[in-house]
Design brief:
Elements (H helix, E strand, L loop, with lengths): L2 E5 L5 H9 L5 E7 L3 H13 L3 E6 L5 H15 L4 E4 L13 H17 L8 E7 H4 L11 H15 L2 H6 L3 E7 L6 H9 L5 H7 L5 H11 L9 E4 L7
Parallel strand pairs: 1-2, 1-4, 2-3, 4-5, 5-6, 6-7
């Protein structure tokens, strides 16, 4: 029987790594993307080259109709969704209005989980991907430029955690994977473009930043390793955990 996995925001970065690492016989990866069709198609080919099956599906997760259509398509083709990886995030895109981070990182995540849950059998899993900046917001300082994302991602995590009893009643395990700044990520490059030494203290405090591959590997493990619902998996940033 084919296991069906939906990875949002999977056309590049950590999402693309997750989709590719999940490749396996008898597993079909839904590579969700918003705009970059060529990149999503390339991820599909990478999954197939790794002995898996995949389909690219365009849907802006902030668009309720597009999300509903994507899930209807999964239901019609497969009849179930076994794993949902909530990886899509953002909020600092050029031209984005002030309310966009909350719509994307909180409202859209909660709605997608709610709409997907009826498709998920007992034993299914929902994994929410976040950052230490968001997960520890309020306990650790956040750079001003990152506040909209940190605030909205934390709100998304809190909203999903409030659904834990509903997930458990359906036999679905909910997990959070939180990572330190990712070496080579857009955020790191942005900070270093403004100040070449901006990230040096973070690297020193953490003993080095995790790579996208390390973060993706932890997300993949979270989709299958034994866990209690509501558990958090931490990647990098040991100083955050003291």
């Amino acid at each position: 029987m084919t296991e069906v996995v939906l990875v949002t925001g999977a056309s590049r970065g950590v999402g693309a790594e997750v989709a590719t690492l999940l490749a396996a016989p008898q597993r079909h990866i839904i590579v969700n993307y918003r705009e970059k069709a060529k990149r999503a198609d390339a991820v599909v080919e990478d999954v197939r080259a790794a002995s898996g099956e995949a389909t690219a599906v365009r849907a802006d997760v902030t668009d309720e109709q597009a999300v509903a259509a994507m899930l209807d398509g999964i239901d019609a083709r497969f009849g179930a969704l076994d794993v949902l990886v909530l990886n899509a995030s953002g909020g600092l895109e050029p031209g984005a209005d002030p309310g966009y981070p909350m719509r994307l990182n909180c409202d859209a995540q909660l709605r997608l989980a709610q709409l997907a849950l009826p498709l998920m059998p007992a034993g299914g899993r929902i994994v929410f991907v976040t950052s230490h900046l968001a997960h520890f917001h309020g306990r650790r300082p956040v750079p001003p430029d990152s506040l909209p994302i940190a605030t909205s991602k934390q709100a998304g995590e809190d909203a999903l955690r409030n659904m834990t009893p509903t997930f458990e009643a359906a036999g679905v395990t909910f997990l959070v994977v939180s990572g330190d700044m990712i070496e080579g990520s857009t955020m790191v490059r942005l900070f270093e473009r403004r100040d070449p030494d901006a990230i040096a203290p973070r690297r020193q405090a953490s003993g080095g930043l995790p790579t996208a591959a390390e973060f993706a590997s932890a997300i993949v493990r979270a989709t299958c390793e034994p866990h209690n619902s509501g558990d958090t998996v931490y990647v990098g940033g040991p100083d955050y955990l003291v």
